[in-house]
């Protein structure tokens, strides 16, 4: 799945910098297929976000800088699942909901340089509240479930989704002129991540919302950068994120677990103005075991992911002009 990011910094004065970035905070594209055992929970679930974040930074003195910005975000959520028509010779029905929404957020940060070799940063990112609105699209319902279309088929379903606020403390220390060590610790307010669609669980169902009982998470990361030769820079690091949800509350529509990330990359300075690089990250997202029980139509679903691995490859270019 291709994705890109753009970052621009403008020197307004000796002490003031203006910046803007255009990125995606996160995205996912779960696709289990239409015939798997848990099709009454989820078959397909793409979630895509994009954000533009203008910002400003001010150097108060040699050891303190402050910055702030605001963001405009756009999100798209699509959710599809099958519906159990109960009768053995009646094929599955289908549920599909899709919505776009816009949201705003903000961020602030400070940068300290108590000594020449040490930089310490503290950043805060506000929550971003999406309010997705759906009109469920129901297809191929059998005779027993035809009343379900009248109950929710034409209704407007509102599902709030909050991208959590987060705080991060970071540090970088220049051990030598060619070698630096860095690290960070962070906290994310995933307990505020409230409602999410989970499909049809009973004939009398009137809502498509459920609280996922998420918990706040913590993260820690360490890394290093080593400059060998005049034009080459090598980076490597490791990061850990705790799981936002326990096995008892985990659902296959969001099979998230603890995450282990290993990354490395290299950059080459082509000339005084242009630097290019390539990086690779391997993420072990954990087995994500789940045990979901949601009524007679969906049944009980238990399982885990045998290989929950993701690979990321990135190309980057820095151009100074």
Description:
This protein is mainly beta and 321 residues long. It has one domain (6-319): Porin (Beta Barrel). 4% of the residues lie in helices and 60% in strands. It has 2 helices and 21 strands. It has helices at residues 146-153, 295-298, and strands spanning 6-11, 16-23, 27-31, 44-61, 64-83, 93-115, 118-125, 128-134, 137-139, 157-163, 166-174, 179-188, 195-196, 210-211, 217-228, 232-241, 259-269, 274-284, 290-293, 300-303, 309-319. It has a 15-stranded antiparallel sheet that branches. A two-stranded antiparallel sheet has the order 8-10. The protein has a two-stranded antiparallel sheet with strand order 13-14. The radius of gyration is 23 Å and the shape is elongated. The mean pLDDT is 88.
Secondary structure: elements and pairs:
Layout: E1 6-11, E2 16-23, E3 27-31, E4 44-61, E5 64-83, E6 93-115, E7 118-125, E8 128-134, E9 137-139, H1 146-153, E10 157-163, E11 166-174, E12 179-188, E13 195-196, E14 210-211, E15 217-228, E16 232-241, E17 259-269, E18 274-284, E19 290-293, H2 295-298, E20 300-303, E21 309-319
């Amino acid at each position: 799945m291709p994705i890109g990011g753009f970052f621009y910094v403008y020197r307004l004065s000796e002490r003031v910098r203006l910046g803007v970035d255009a990125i995606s905070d996160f995205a996912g594209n779960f696709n289990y297929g239409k015939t798997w055992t848990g099709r009454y929970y989820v078959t397909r679930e793409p979630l895509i976000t994009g954000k533009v974040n203008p910002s400003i930074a001010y150097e108060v003195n040699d050891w303190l800088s402050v910055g702030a910005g605001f963001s405009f975000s756009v999100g798209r959520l699509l959710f599809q699942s099958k519906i159990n028509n109960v009768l053995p010779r009646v094929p599955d029905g289908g549920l599909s909901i899709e919505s776009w929404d816009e949201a705003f957020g903000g961020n602030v940060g400070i940068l300290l340089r108590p000594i020449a070799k040490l930089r310490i940063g503290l950043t805060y990112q506000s929550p971003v509240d999406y309010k997705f609105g759906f009109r469920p699209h129901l297809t191929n319902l059998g005779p027993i479930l035809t009343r379900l279309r009248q109950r929710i088929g034409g209704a407007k379903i509102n599902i709030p989704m909050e991208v959590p606020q987060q705080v991060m403390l970071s540090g970088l220390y220049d051990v030598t002129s060619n070698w630096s060590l860095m690290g960070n610790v962070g906290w994310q307010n995933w307990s505020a991540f409230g409602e999410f669609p989970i499909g049809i669980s009973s004939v009398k169902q009137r809502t498509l919302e459920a609280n996922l009982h998420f918990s706040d998470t913590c993260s820690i990361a360490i890394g290093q950068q080593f400059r060998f030769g005049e034009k080459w820079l090598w980076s490597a690091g490791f990061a850990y994120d705790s799981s936002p949800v326990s096995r008892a509350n985990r659902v296959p529509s969001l099979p998230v677990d603890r995450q282990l990330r290993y990354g490395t990359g290299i950059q080459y300075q082509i000339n005084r103005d242009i630097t290019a690089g390539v990086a690779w990250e391997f993420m072990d997202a954990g087995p994500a075991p789940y045990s979901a029980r949601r009524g007679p139509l969906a049944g009980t679903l238990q399982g885990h992911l045998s290989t929950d691995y993701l690979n990321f490859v990135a190309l980057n270019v820095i151009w100074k002009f």
